Amino acid sequence: xxxxxxxxxxxxxxxxxxxxxxxxxxxxxxxxxxxxxxxxxxxxxxxxxxxxxxxxxxxxxxxxxxxxxxxxxxxxxxxxxxxxxxxxxxxxxxxxxxxxxxxxxxxxxxxx
Amino acid sequence: xxxxxxxxxxxxxxxxxxxxxxxxxxxxxxxxxxxxxxxxxxxxxxxxxxxxxxxxxxxxxxxxxxxxxxxxxxxxxxxxxxxxxxxxxxxxxxxxxxxxxxxxxxxxxxxxxxxxx
Lengths: 112, 117
Description:
- The complex is a heterodimer.
- By secondary structure, chain A is an all-beta fold.
- Chain A has strands at 3-6, 10-14, 19-21, 23-26, 32-38, 44-50, 56-58, 64-68, 73-78, 87-94, 101-102, 106-111.
- Chain B has strands at residues 4-7, 10-13, 19-25, 30-38, 44-51, 57-58, 67-73, 76-81, 90-98, 106-108, 112-116.
- In chain B, the strands form two sheets. In chain B, strands 2, 4, 5, 6, 9, 10 and 11 form a seven-stranded mixed beta sheet that branches. Chain B has a four-stranded antiparallel beta sheet with strand order 1-3-8-7, with no helix packed on it.
- Chain B is mainly β.
- At the A-B interface, β5, β6 and β11 of A face β5, β9 and β10 of B.
């Protein structure tokens, strides 16, 4: 079975500061990895995904993530956040091109 | 491209009634659609996987007779909450997989807020 652990339930940060949202996963097979963002009362928007190849993945809105196989991690980073980045962020794994398992989410709050 | 819609976006119903939620892939064919449930401040929990033309596969603990799923075409799946109770109040999100684009990515709908009074 696969599982996803998002290590921080809440991350407060000041505007223009860098941020890292941590994600670890466990799986006995190769997985695809995703980060989604959810704004209040909305569905999920894909930020970025790792399928194969380069371990550094760049996504939308200036976000990037690095896949680390030995540490089974897929942390999300942004060098300078904006107020508009305030949202819930979900890490997800898909082990077999079928269902997707989500982490518990990290609430990013950007303060002025 | 790859847009998924849900209707309605929010619905209030009385306890004991049934509610139908539609999930549509607007610009692609979706052989597989997924239904998730999200409680306030919590993550998405997969309820069931539906494949066009066949019966849905429900996750453990999800009552198939209560949450009826029909995937009648390559662009439409419906979730019917039967005999709804207040504990069914939740945010329901569907997603669809683009058959032609590859099997690894799901596109999510905007969600439906269900409140049972």
